[in-house]
Write a structure and sequence with these properties.
Hypothetical Protein Pfu-838710-001; 3 helices; globular
Length: 185
């Protein structure tokens, strides 16, 4: 998709048209709780992720994410009724800028290790949360369409795709440790 930006210079009354291509996608993914650590033996890579939210309202979230030495700014829209599909825009940004933006984020920075497991035509991303969300492990699989089938490894537990409390933006506000306190009393 292309957008046209208009830049006006008041000094010489000139107008400049700049055309930029912006990557806009529809994200289709399903989420599952992970039952055990069996996935660690099957993974080909592991990355550390730090992320925070500049905006986490119901209509959109604006996320800053640092994955090892790379950084990204992401905007996600509202999910459909099934929770599987939503608009996503992402752009790589300078690591220094991302570290400065993290300071501006809302309370509740997410820390996690992400493991990557290739299974058939898909890559399953397994997030092992740290800090206030320690003990929570969620697997995500991105799909090309809502009805696409995929192989389900034994470590996948119940599906939580449509449960908003498992969204990272929700985990910032109500971390997993708060849930476990409530259930242990």
């Amino acid at each position: 998709m292309s957008n046209i930006f208009i830049s006006c210079n008041n000094n010489d009354k000139s107008i400049t048209l700049v055309q930029r291509t912006i990557k806009m996608n529809i994200e289709i993914e399903r989420k599952f709780l992970v039952k055990n650590n069996e996935f660690k033996k099957m993974c080909y890579d592991k990355k550390h992720i730090t992320q925070g939210y500049l905006n986490s309202n119901k209509k959109r979230v604006v996320r800053v994410r640092i994955i090892d030495d790379l950084a990204f700014l992401t905007i996600k829209g509202v999910s459909d009724a099934s929770g599987t599909t939503r608009f996503e825009w992402e752009k790589e940004i300078d690591l220094k800028d991302a570290k400065e933006l993290i300071i501006l984020c809302e309370n509740g920075i997410i820390e996690k290790n992400r493991f990557y497991h290739k299974l058939g035509n898909h890559i399953i991303e397994i997030d092992e949360f740290l800090g206030k969300n320690k003990g929570l492990v969620i697997a995500e699989i991105e799909l090309k369409n809502k009805n696409e089938t995929f192989l389900k490894p034994n470590y996948l537990g119940i599906e939580v795709t449509n449960d908003k409390k498992y969204y990272n933006s929700s985990l910032c506000l109500n971390p997993f440790k708060n849930w476990t306190k409530k259930t242990s009393n």
